[in-house]
């Protein structure tokens, strides 16, 4: 059964670009469309802005910083799509802010995607224990299949 809509999280790492290339092959085979998505983590200062002692932090500065992150991510996705995605594969670019796995699952549901194709660095040991794995959380929580590329 060919997929119709594939979501590809792109963090500009080699594994995420490898996952994008795999998704492109699947999309071409099944005439699917792609959604290239970059998730920006909420800025710690923005989350802690209401905590005593943070009142002096300029909320306007946080907003400008967030907008810069979104603009840079959008430009990066546009550049990546131009370099990687062939003209015969339809795609869209999405930049969202939030917890990565939850944001990806929300976008998959709202866009009615039927596959997530994600890259992973394959951390093991203490780094994996401390940082966890977005791919692992997606596999555990996703309502659609998750293809993990390493």
Write a concise keyword list for the protein shown above:
alpha/beta; 19% strand; 49% helix; globular; 150 residues; five-stranded parallel sheet; Rossmann fold
Euclidean distance between termini CA atoms: 24 Å
CATH topology: Rossmann fold
Radius of gyration: 17 Å
What count of domains describes the coordinates?
1
Largest sheet: 5 strands, parallel
Looking across the biggest beta sheet, what order are the strands in?
3-2-1-4-5
| H-E order | EHEHHEHEHHE
The structure class reads alpha/beta
Helix coverage percent of residues? 40-55%
CATH superfamily: HUPs
* 3D shape: globular
Question: What portion of residues belong to β-strands?
Answer: 15-25%
Mean pLDDT: 84
Number of strands: 5
The low-confidence runs, each spanning 5 or more residues with pLDDT under 50, are 125-132
> Under the CATH scheme, which architecture would be assigned?
3-Layer(aba) Sandwich
What's the helix count? 6
What is the CATH top level name? Alpha Beta
